[in-house]
């Protein structure tokens, strides 16, 4: 078996027309009665278009895994990884942290890649519930671990800046697979190490 295995992960296909996005941003702002003739607002449609393009672009990375030669069989957890995405219902940001853990099988993953996987799925219009499950399912497919756990805690600006304006509220979602779902002690250990009251 090789010393490591890599899987090159690319961002979603571009398919972008930035000129059209800039025009659409200008039309959107003007339709809301915002005058774009002032010096400070004149370039806002371009900045807006490129800002959203950046939010929707994940950086490519190599998923590096290594053989679990030591047969390590305890929980591996990376917690408090910063996370940002955009709510697909209002196209407003949500930000928070993600905690990702797994019980390794034959291979282990480079720790920084756990954060990269979260970023990969977060860089698109999202639902927090879907995002949580996508991260867990993808790691289960790639690593074939004995269990995977993902918890996301996030503040949604669509709740805090508009509508109910519930400032300071947090939404918590979790996905548990394999042993972390089936075994109560393993599940409790994951939640305790992640710092989540379950």
How would you characterize the overall build of this protein?
This protein is α+β, with helices and mostly antiparallel strands and 198 residues long. Helix content is 37%, strand content 29%. It is built from seven helices and eight strands. Strands 6-3-4-7-8 form a five-stranded mixed sheet, with helices on both faces. Strand 3 and strand 4 (93-103) form a beta hairpin. Helix 3 (111-122) packs across helix 4 (128-143). The longest helix has 16 residues, at 128-143. It is elongated and about 65 Å long.
List the helices and strands and how they pair.
Elements: E1 5-9, H1 18-31, H2 44-55, E2 61-67, E3 76-87, E4 93-103, E5 107-109, H3 111-122, E6 125-126, H4 128-143, E7 147-156, H5 157-160, E8 171-178, H6 179-182, H7 184-194
Parallel strand pairs: 3-6
Antiparallel strand pairs: 1-2, 2-5, 3-4, 4-7, 7-8
Quick description:
With 198 residues, the protein is an alpha+beta fold.
Features:
single chain; about 200 residues; alpha+beta; 7 helices; 8 strands
- Work out the helicity level: 25-40%
Q: What is the CA-based Rg, rounded?
A: 20 Å
How many extended strands?
8
Unreliable spans: none
- Can you write the helix and strand succession as a string? EHHEEEEHEHEHEHH
Strand-residue fraction?
Answer: 25-35%
Let me know the average pLDDT: 90
Distance between the ends? 39 Å
| Count of runs of 4 or more consecutive helical residues | 7
Query: Helix/strand/pairing class, anyone?
Result: alpha+beta
Biggest sheet strand line-up: 6-3-4-7-8
Shape: elongated
Largest sheet: 5 strands, mixed
